[in-house]
Amino acid sequence: MLKNYLKFSLRHIRRNKIYSSINIIGLAIGIAGFFLIMLWVQDELSFDKFHENRDSIYRVVCETKGEPFFGSPAPLAPTIANELPEVLRSTRLYRVPRFVFGYEEKSFYEDNGIVVDPAFFHMFSFPFIKGSLETGFTNPDHIVITESMAQKYFGADDPINKKINVEGEGFLVVGGVLKDIPANSHLQFDYALPYVFLQDVRLCGLEWGDFNFKTYVQLNLPLNQEDVQKKITQIAIDNDCPQIKYDGFSFSLQSLKDMYLHPISAYDIQLGDMKYIYIFSIVALLLLGVACINFINLSTARAIVRVKEVSIRKTVGADRRHIIAQLWSEFFVFALSASVIALAIVQVAMPYFNQLTEKQLALHFMQPHMLILMISAICCCGLVAGLYPAISISVFQPVRLMQRQTMGLNSPFLRRLLVVSQFALSILLIVCTLVVAQQMRYIHDKSWTLRDDVVLHMPIKENIGIKFDVVKNELLLHPNIVAVSAKDALPTMLNNNTTGVWWTGKTDAQNSLHIETIRVSHDYFTTMGLALTEGRAFSQDFSDDEGVAYILNEEAVRQTGLSDPVGKSFALYRRQGPIIGVVQDSYFHTLKQPKRPQAFYLFTNLPREGFFGSVFIRISKTQSHADVQAVISHIESVWRGVNQIAPFEYHFLDQTIQKQYQDEQRLMFLFGIFSAVAILISCLGLFGLATFMAERRTKEIGIRKALGSTVPGVIMLLTRSFATWVLIANIIAWPLAWFIMNKWLQNFVYRTEMTWWMFVLAGGMAFVIALLTISWQAIRAATANPVEALRYE
Amino acid sequence: MIKLIDIEKYYANKFVKTFVLRNISLDIQEGEFLTIMGPSGAGKSTLLHIVGMLDDMSSGEYYFYDEPVHQLKEKDRTRLHQQNIGFVFQQYHLIDDLTVYENLETPLIYKKVKGSERKSMVADMLDRFSIVAKKDLFPNQLSGGQQQLVAIARALIINPKLILADEPTGNLNSKQGFEIMDMLKELNDQGVTIVQVTHDEKKAEYGNRIVNLLDGWMEESGT
Q: What interface predicted TM-score (ipTM) does this complex get?
């Protein structure tokens, strides 16, 4: 029986090529999109799952009056591990600033290093493949590196006990090699140094007041999280940690399982976001849904053609179950072939998809959950999509055939509903894509205030800080370099955010106001193209400026409530000085955050305070590409003039700023692509439906033409109903799209407005797409010879 | 074998009932060759479909070998019809997607006849109708007469007690038509009950009883 069903199904598919291929291709594209998105989702959800202790690891979060952050002081980790029985192990983690490492002739910038306690490797599953924790991670000069990093410096040689040169000033000894860090780890690093290193080389404050570390703890389960949090906070208070004791901060715990997808602030280290998991899961289901709708539509529409066969089968003894089983096996064959094609599409698309998502996804057929996912997708399509057509076709009374009724058995209402919902979805997706694109452009325009200019930046490395004046003067020798300055960090980064400020007239209510403090060198505002709205910029003419004169941005003036700020007193960490100017607000930080109040002051010791900083170089306008290249060559020669070890590098500021949105842009690009795919599938279905409708109405068209209808008249007839559907779809989709996108835009502090033209455009696009899709069929039907159409009736 | 009592069939729309059959009472004995005659729209085919259990009656009683068909569930009706009734239609109604062999095999599949048995039964039938050479052809590769031959073979393959023929020769030329009629007669002689619908007097004469239908009313005329 089953063999027969399959044989007839295959034959049926072969004999109805257009119908079958539309059906199968539409379904295949839908399933392929579904698989790709699901692979992405699965990868996102797999973050940090490989750690054996994943259930018992927590990160200490510092709760402030504003947004929480993930800093904690160095002594916290060992103290709580000693004093709290609930804490099994603890480690602190410090991100090492960019260093230049060298071995023999090779030297590289290393961005991605961490300082941790040895317990780190007991807590997290980052296994050693050479050397060991006991022998290679105890001395201040020990370093543990990953396989890839070992390969980069030492090739095939055994890296153990090799000496790596650091900035030409010292050496680190390789004590161990780690297996490469899995891509789905929120902790990413190329090398690790033991905490004792920091006691030797004080890169940052190590006291209770210095929140420079992340603290991870492994707790004894089961635990009372509230209780442990309170105890940790109490320990900090007992140890006179000023922020906790006086500022009212407290510590809380965040599970490792939440770290990647539930970031605590925009400045967190993670990349993932649960929101996008939801969005893309919905898109995946929509794709599958749209494909299934096609399937149902085409199958039920085709049902009329099947009336004869079904009726005959019934007259020779088939009952409903036979018919349902037969149709189902046919749909199952459809779904199966579609899945096979889908897997092929996934394989082919995978490299591009990986490029887009910057992931290393692969289809592992043998992974049980992938198998389950695939089988359930096939079953879902075959069964769910096949269920309605199978049942609706199977109910025919065979007598219908005998009476030669060609009446539409199935409810045209349902088909209309499905087509309308497909269109509503398409319109929804188009509106979403438009709004997203608009918002991205808005951010791009808004964040780049130096539109026509070019600003380059390079790190303050090796001797750049010490010889900054020389470097600056030499750079300015080039005619196209108009300004040079330095800042303590990239303007996209929040380097120092403090409540340790005072100004004339500060009230108690303003004690929790955080101000971002920024050290700059002279000419910073000129270089960055920021205008002063009041007062003056820092100037060499005023020797008192250094270290004690302050410039606030407009937001700081607004939030401090200072009126007429120039000349008023301001203090940072009790160092008092006059406010000499007010500068316009800048948009270097991510626009998902509100504007920050900022206070600028001059470096007093640039080599030390600017250790993590950058030099900014402004190039005059209207540069040709060759001119820019010449400037870069000049900058490089200046660099080489003072530096021996550090490799030259430079960046364009606009690219650095845009990088903040790259995840969002990448995801939105993906979203756009999948929207297009969904629309394409809808069109396939519409095309199939139009073909079928034209076929079905051959007789009607023949009669109309015989009665004198014109070709345009017939085309009108065929397209009118579709046009009505698209109109209804618009009415459904618009409010829905408005609601959804309004929600999404709430994520941005700076957001574009949704305007009516987006909706009209989306509706218009859907209409044009529908019209193009069906017009081919309509024209073909309209221009056919009416005699042909009538002959067989 | 068949007993119809006061069968009525009508289509009701909002306001009016349109009658197709009225007060039909009819006995059909085993071994009979009954002809239903009447002009177009008289309800001949509807009556045949009701007898063949393809259509429901609006009211009345229908006994098939004493089983009350009007009270049976669809499943039981299908079983009854599967085992006892073969159909022959004017338009042949073969399944276009299936070969001659597969068309013949289909009723046996639904009757759950085993594979090996099925093979021999189909082979017998092909032999009997001398269409062995055509077994792998599709219906559209055959002439009308050949298609009707296959359709009759298909009706016979389940070894039915009753054959219902709805204008079986309507689409054939006269020579083919009489060949098919001869074949039905021969089957009747072998004991198969036959009910045919026709409006051709000559074809009607093959039967041993004629029932006339006019606007849904029945009048019986001689044998």
A: 0.81
